[in-house]
Design brief:
Strand order of the largest sheet: 1-2
Strand content: under 5%
Distance between the termini: 62 Å
Largest sheet: 2 strands, antiparallel
Structural class: mainly alpha
Shape: globular
Length: about 1550
């Protein structure tokens, strides 16, 4: 099957001399098509002839050889489900006949073209090779349905151009691929690939190359490396040694330019092949030729390959390649900065460090910033850093931003004494000032020049509000009453100022500036309402529209549909005048405009009520070369500028438009639609279902044209080709649910499974499949794959992809395959790792991960990045074993890539978007609540992972310096008094530096110095051990214990809570300081060597340590392992004593959990191990500096605002107790917390904790209300008196109105007797839902209603019948604006062809009287939003035809009371068909059917009685009920 557009064989035009009426013998044509189809080769992997499988009874016998069920029985059983649970009724002969008639009618419209081409018989032209010039005459609705014919010559360059012009049409690409597969040479295929350079098609091109052309078998050398690089990872990893050598990959893999645009996951696969088939020594020696691949190696191997590279060459690699942060960190760790410059050029080193700073681990940054010389070089580049990090687009993790900012803290003076000088010095780093910090700085510091200098886009809105208030206060001190704030403070202008209600500005303010439109991105709803009101007179002028398009397109969200339609020409004209670069940037934003506006765009530009089909060429902006041939080809951008740009509005498609697309063009439209959506967008359920309905029409037409007689649903699906499947995509195919596994044609089933498996897991949650369905798909597809690829485990895993986690058994895989599956297959899509599977499957996946990645103790930061959200399957014990070092380095990428805290739309049974983890829990529980069962277990698993993320965040933020002059935290990190006096010392870093110097100087030390060092370590251990024993309640002078017994006693005391944490910390710090001080003196280190000031060094040398402990040392009677050597031992090694003695400092620290305690004070113990062995003639002394690798189990998280912010969306699982123990003043955190999407029940718990710690007073002031943001609905519910809901506080109140229906009564009360103004009504949002019938009638002027849209239709209220009546009366002034009133029929509402208007009215459709709703065309019902159906008290008012057109998502929200007392079986069947995707709704319908079973009998009696009495009328429902009581009870 295919487009004859692909037939590029030129045939001379027919030479007709008579202008006769062109004829078409449809019967002969159908016979021709039928025979062509049976003889044609399919486009599946085996190129089988269709007659092998058709008629489909043959396919059934092939796939069900032992089935006792006959083919007819099989078809009937599947047809029952299709009809009952999807509303997919078998196509009657009459319907198929109509489809054929419509198809042939297209030819009648081609009379003029036929005359021009001298065609007297269409049969003569179509039944064979179609002339090239005739081909382009045919409409796409015909072209797409004709069989693919294979020419003897092809033009790959022309084909490539056609694909480049129409890249979003995947079906077209696969038909090109089929033609080239059959009719082209390898050289021609290679030419096509090279000429087709469009990134969007790369996944599909990989499919064609490997699974259709067999390029992955590497049997031909004609294919270039550029083509081979596109192969899917299973093909790459299947390359054996013979194939590797045959195509000379040793040389080809050196072509680094080829891999510049290859995704990382595929690059990793090519590295694995390289490492497998090439000698490691060779790769090291030829590193530069293969570095682009070797940089994809595991971290240890990546460094090993650089064996012959000096530090400068390693540094060059880091700056030349855009590597992930964890790779940059590993390379930096292996760079000796002093080695980089022979002339000791510190500036050169600083420049390198500066260029990669944003990718370094915070520990690495801390080590560098701790050096005074290096810091001074960095400080000189602070303005460049500000430009890149703060004002630029560089994505810098929050902890690094905060760390560097705190390092640039401008003064040690108290904040209360700061002037503008300190703020000017701090500059853009002022974003690090907390709300409390800002409030503590005197107002006089906030001069205009200072404010301009300090504000950046890294500042939160809360910070801007504080600065705004300070600025105004400062201006008032100058006795000013009018102001001119800097543009950076425009986001804080109150709506009363924007409206002019309050006199504020010194001079008239020009609102039509870039700065003002940028500021609107931070506006509250009330500010937006007023701003749009202010600019409405110039809204549709070109200059204003350009500002909106480039700065804040969301401003148009508040524009009514009718107004947008009226000004669409101006909007499109401005778009076209932006220029190519801006146009492309804005185009990506347009797809996220409100669907009603996009739909209005389509209604205006492509919908013609008088035409049967819409113009798909206009809808898709088809290029002229595709429509009319190469001679018509023009520049694509220029051509697009000539049209209506309707393709930009594709996400606005609704069923009334979809149903007017000809069946032959629907696949192309679906493919383009899918590619118009971003990765995080879904196909709305109404569109998805209508697409499925139209695909059925396409297949029915195909069946009729080729005389295939497909009647049942699974037969229709068996007519799909590869091109069809790849165009339709998995999301639409899943609409068929369990019917998929019953597809008769085995090759179609295989390709459908493969398509579904390549969609991301969250798609299942919105769709027509249950957990059971997906598990069945996985098992079935797995068996098919194993049978097809018995010796290729990785191929099986790759093709299973997102279905693999649903397998109920362990998949056959080696350790290498298991790891490769994660790092190449699942790593290709960030959503693929966010699995939604039950506990048993999580355990199976866990075992697979452990097989591939080994014990968690060995996991590197790169391993963690690869695993991402897959870590949800790991146990707490697993997560505890991971090293802190690995987690700290990977954490920012882990939380940035995590999807479980993302809100997903259209989750069945939920009106509002749901957090992914909760949506998953509901799906796993089959639509039931997730208080128990698999849903609860999944939430527990995510909570475990999220808290591990937060713990990891703490390991980063603990490095952020605490500036003592800043406002003290509530639970500030406490230290002993000495440490407080020298807060700039980071003892961990200092200790590491001393040990580094020890390693460097060991060869130069004398024998006596080495003995001193050994004695020092022994002495320190004894001091630490004795001191801790004393704290544990033991007198070391009175007992005799082995070192093992000492540790056991310490552990017991720790576990029993007998140790004073502060005293333990003091001892631990004493041990560290003792080693630092004494080693520094032995090694003769200076302050400069240590990177600290001379004053600090002198103070350090004077510090006393172990004062209370030393008195006991003389009588200590136990020994530690490392002994000071006597004279007789000098020639031997000083090593640990017997195995298992457990006496190393590392083990003692671990037993005491010193690292965990010390982290709280920014003085962590080192996390590396270093052993320095020095050979000096016959003397061989080993000094072991050994510290344990710190595991996540050893970390005790202390929550702070920085931890919460660093954890990102994972912070949605924070607990109330965590907030109670917050390090910061909680007022500094409310804005961070207020921006997080918590589940409702968790938000309620957290508010209780917040409230207890916030000093709210009688009222929460306006700024804090805005900062609390998403907490406001909960506050309104539980503590309404705390909120100021006065009209004067409308800006803050409008934040509440975004999501709460509460407190409108208080707002109205504060109004007194006044009516609500239009701006207030638009600003209050969902709060209006709480108004009473009286409020709607008396508090809103009837004349105001036409001006309340779209706001009023977006608030999704649930109202009673009394309110509904008032609302509809008031809507009478609105409907004419939307052309929804037919004046000729007594003002009846007209719904047909007005989807954009229906979407804008939204929930208000539900308040229409039944008599209006009953008249809605069945085709319009699918456009009704869910909020409309919620307000319809009785769904029984609709006919069965209307009911079955309700789309799946609204059906999932139907309540039992909406079914009324009784629904006849026909209506119940219609509802069942409409809501068949939702298991909860099906249970509801089954329960309802049982309840009304008796009434069904009574109804049958009534109908029977009515039929007997021809003169009578049908008995009433009431009488039917009486009958049921009389006769059945």
């Amino acid at each position: 099957m295919g487009w004859n557009l692909l037939n590029l064989l030129m045939i001379a035009s027919l030479a007709l001399t008579e202008e006769t009426e062109p004829q078409l013998d449809s019967d002969n044509f159908l016979d021709y098509l039928s025979q062509q189809f049976l003889d044609d080769r399919s486009d599946f992997s085996g190129l089988e002839v269709n007659k092998i499988f058709f008629p489909l009874a043959k396919a059934y016998n092939l796939t069900h050889p032992d089935s006792e069920e006959s083919y007819d029985e099989f078809k009937n059983n599947t047809a029952k489900f299709a009809k009952r649970c999807r509303g997919f009724k078998p196509f009657a002969r009459e319907e198929s006949k109509r489809l054929l008639e419509d198809f042939f009618e297209e030819f009648a419209l081609l009379k003029q073209e036929a005359y021009a081409k001298q065609i007297d018989s269409w049969n003569n032209v179509l039944e064979g090779n179609i002339p090239y010039d005739v081909l382009y005459v045919l409409p796409f609705s015909i072209r797409s349905m004709l069989p693919l014919q294979y020419p003897t010559e092809v033009d790959p360059a022309e084909m490539a151009l056609m694909v480049q012009e129409d890249p979003d049409n995947f079906s077209f690409l696969h038909k090109i691929g089929q033609l080239l597969r059959v009719a082209a040479s390898d050289l021609e295929r290679e030419k096509f690939v090279q000429d087709t350079r469009v990134n969007v098609i790369d996944p599909e091109m990989a499919f064609i190359l490997a699974y259709r052309w067999g390029v992955g078998r590497l049997q031909k050398t004609v294919y270039t490396m550029n083509t081979l690089a596109k192969l899917p990872v299973d093909s790459v990893l299947s390359v054996n040694a013979a194939q590797f050598e045959k195509v000379d990959l040793t040389e080809r893999l050196k072509e680094s330019a080829v891999f510049e645009d290859v995704p990382e996951s595929k690059m990793t696969a090519w590295y694995l092949v390289t490492a497998k088939h090439m000698n490691e020594a060779y790769l090291k020696e030829n590193y530069d030729k293969h570095k682009h691949l070797l940089l994809m190696a595991p971290l240890d191997k990546m460094i090993a390959y650089m064996e012959y590279k000096d530090s400068q060459r390693k540094a060059d690699l880091v700056t030349a390649f855009d590597l992930p942060a964890v790779r940059v960190q590993e390379i930096f760790k292996n760079i000796d900065l002093k080695e980089m410059s022979a002339d000791d050029d510190d500036v050169k080193i600083s420049n390198f460090f500066f260029n990669i700073l944003h990718k370094l681990d915070i520990e690495q940054i801390d080590g560098y910033y701790g050096n005074d010389v290096e810091f001074s070089n960095l400080y000189s580049k602070r303005h460049e850093l500000e430009k890149l990090w703060i004002e630029g687009s560089q994505n810098v993790p929050w902890p690094l931003l905060k760390y560097v900012a705190m390092k640039h803290w401008p003064s040690s003076a108290p904040l209360s004494t700061w002037t503008s000088k300190q703020l000017l010095i701090f500059e853009k780093f002022a974003f690090a000032l907390t709300l409390q910090d800002l409030n503590s700085i005197p107002v006089q510091a906030f001069m205009e020049s200072t404010v301009k200098n300090m504000i950046s886009n890294k500042m939160t809105t809360g910070q801007l509000y504080v600065i705004f208030e300070k600025f105004i206060e400062a201006e008032k001190l100058k006795e000013l009453t009018k102001f001119d704030p800097p543009a950076s403070l425009y986001p804080c202008l109150p709506s009363s100022v924007l409206s002019g209600e309050t006199e504020f500005f010194q001079d008239a303010k020009d609102f039509y500036t870039q700065e003002m439109f940028m500021a609107t991105k931070r506006f509250t709803p009330a500010q937006i309402v007023v701003f749009m009101d202010v600019i409405k007179s110039k809204l549709w002028e070109e200059s204003t529209l350009e500002l909106i398009l480039t700065e804040n397109l969301s401003l148009l969200d508040s524009v009514p549909t009718w107004e947008f339609k009226r000004n669409l020409d101006a909007f499109i004209s401005t778009l076209k005048k932006l220029g190519k670069t801006k146009f492309q940037a804005v185009s990506t934003k347009i797809k996220r405009m409100p669907r009603r506006l996009l739909n209005a765009w389509l209604e205006v530009t492509i919908l013609n009520p008088g035409e049967k089909y819409i113009n798909v060429t206009a809808l898709l902006d088809r290029p002229a070369g595709v429509v009319s041939g190469p001679d018509a080809r023009v520049d694509l951008y220029e051509q697009k500028m000539e049209g209506s740009l309707a393709s930009l509005a594709l996400p606005g498609l609704t069923c009334n438009l979809i149903e007017k697309i000809s069946p032959g063009e629907i696949i192309e439209v679906i493919s383009n639609y899918r590619n118009s959506l971003d990765e995080d967008m879904i196909i709305p359920s109404d569109v998805r279902r209508c697409f499925a309905m139209m695909v059925r029409k396409f297949l029915a037409l195909k069946s009729a044209l080729y005389k295939l007689e497909a009647t049942s649903e699974v037969e229709l699906l068996s007519l799909l080709s590869t091109a069809d499947i790849r165009g339709i995509g998995g999301e639409v195919l899943l609409t068929w649910g369990q019917l998929i596994e019953d597809i008769v044609h085995p090759e179609v089933l295989y390709e459908v499974y493969q398509m579904i498996a390549s969609d991301v897991p969250h798609v299942y949650l919105h769709n027509g499949v249950s957990l059971t369905n997906i598990k069945n798909f996985a098992a079935d597809f797995h068996q098919i794959l194993v049978d097809k690829h018995p010796d290729a485990d990785f191929v099986v895993m790759k093709k299973l992809r997102d279905l693999l986690p649903f397998l109920g058994e362990e998949v056959s895989a080696s350790a290498d395959d298991a790891k490769a599956f994660v790092i190449t297959v699942l790593n290709a899509n960030p959503w693929a790792r966010s699995v939604c599977i039950p506990a048993a499957n999580r355990e199976l996946l866990r075992k697979l991960i452990l097989k591939g990645f080994g014990n968690p103790e060995s996991w590197t930061s790169l391993d963690l990045v690869y695993l991402g959200d897959l870590l949800i399957v790991m146990t707490q014990e697993d997560l505890n074993k991971v090293s802190v070092d690995s987690v700290r380095r990977a954490l920012t990428e882990l939380v940035a890539g995590s999807k479980y805290g993302v809100l997903l739309p259209e989750i069945r049974g939920h009106e509002e978007p749901q957090l992914y983890f909760e949506a998953c829990a509901a799906w796993l529980n089959d639509g039931r609540t997730f208080e128990d069962g698999e849903g609860k277990l999944f939430i527990d698993a995510y909570e475990r992972l999220a808290h591990w993320h937060m713990k990891g965040a703490y390991t980063i933020t603990s490095y952020i310096p605490v500036v003592e002059t800043a406002v003290p935290r509530l639970a500030k990190r406490e230290t002993n008094e000495d440490l407080q006096e020298t807060p700039e010392i980071n003892f961990k870093v200092l200790h590491d530096k001393v040990v580094g110097h020890l390693n460097e100087k060991m060869k130069l030390l004398t024998r006596e110095e080495k003995i001193k060092i050994a004695n020092l370590y022994q002495e320190t251990k004894e001091l630490l051990g004795n001191g801790t024993m004393k704290l544990a309640g033991h007198d070391p002078t009175k007992i005799s214990l082995t070192d093992k017994e000492v540790l056991d006693n310490i552990k017991s005391a720790k576990e029993g809570g007998d140790l004073n944490v502060d005293e333990v910390v003091s001892l631990a710090l004493d041990a560290q300081i003792h080693l630092i001080r004494e080693l520094s003196q032995i090694l003769k280190l200076t302050a400069e060597d240590l990177g600290i000031s001379t004053g600090v060094y002198e103070e350090l040398k004077k510090r006393d340590t172990f004062v209370e402990t030393e008195r006991f040392m003389a009588t200590a009677v136990y020994s530690f392992t490392t002994r000071a050597p006597g004279a007789e031992e000098v020639t031997g090694e000083i090593t640990n004593q017997s195995e298992g003695s457990g006496s190393s400092i590392a083990e003692l620290d671990e037993a005491m959990q010193f690292d965990e305690v010390l982290k709280s004070f920014n003085t962590e113990a080192p996390t590396t191990e270093a052993a320095t062995t020095v050979g000096q003639s016959a003397v061989d002394v080993t000094v072991t500096v050994e510290t344990a690798v710190v595991r996540m189990a050893d970390v005790a998280v202390k929550y702070s605002c920085d931890v919460i912010r660093t954890a990102g969306k994972s912070a949605c699982m924070i607990l109330p107790g965590d907030l109670n123990n917050l390090e910061d003043d909680i007022s500094n955190c409310i804005e961070v917390l207020g921006d997080i999407d918590f589940s409702d029940h968790r938000r309620a718990e957290l508010w209780d904790a917040l409230k207890d710690n916030l000093n709210t007073g009688d009222k929460i002031e306006s700024g804090s209300m805005i900062n609390l943001n998403k907490f406001l609905p909960e506050i309104a519910r539980s503590d309404p008196d705390l909120l100021d809901v006065t009209p004067q506080n409308l800006d803050a109140v409008s934040i509440l109105g975004k999501s709460s229906t509460l407190l409108i009564d208080k707002f109205i009360k504060n109004l007194g007797t006044r009516a609500l103004s239009i701006n207030q009504l638009k600003s209050l949002g969902r709060m209006l839902c709480g108004m009473t019938e009286s409020d709607w009638k008396n508090r809103i002027h009837k004349s105001a209603y036409p001006f309340l849209f779209p706001h009023l239709g977006e608030i999704n209220c649930h109202v009673d019948s009394e309110v509904s009546k008032v609302l509809f009366e008031n809507l009478e002034n609105v409907l004419p604006k939307y052309d929804m009133v037919d004046d000729d029929v007594d003002h009846w509402t007209v719904f047909d062809q007005r989807s954009s208007s229906v979407m804008e009215l939204g929930w208000l459709i539900g308040v229409f009287p039944s008599i209006h709703l009953e008249r809605a065309p069945a085709s319009s019902i699918s456009t009704f939003p869910y909020s409309a159906f919620i307000n319809i008290p009785d769904l029984g008012i609709f006919s069965p035809e209307q009911l079955e057109n309700i789309d799946p998502f609204p059906m999932s929200l139907v309540r039992e009371e909406q079914l009324g007392e009784y629904l006849d079986p026909q209506k119940r069947d219609a509802l069942h068909a409409a809501g068949g995707e939702d298991p909860r709704f099906l249970r509801l319908m089954d329960s309802f059917a049982e309840r009304v079973e008796d009434l069904d009998v009574a109804e049958e009696l009534v109908e029977s009685s009515t039929k007997k009495d021809s003169g009578g009328t049908k008995l009433s429902f009431t009488f039917a009920t009486i009958l049921s009581v009389l006769f059945l009870h």
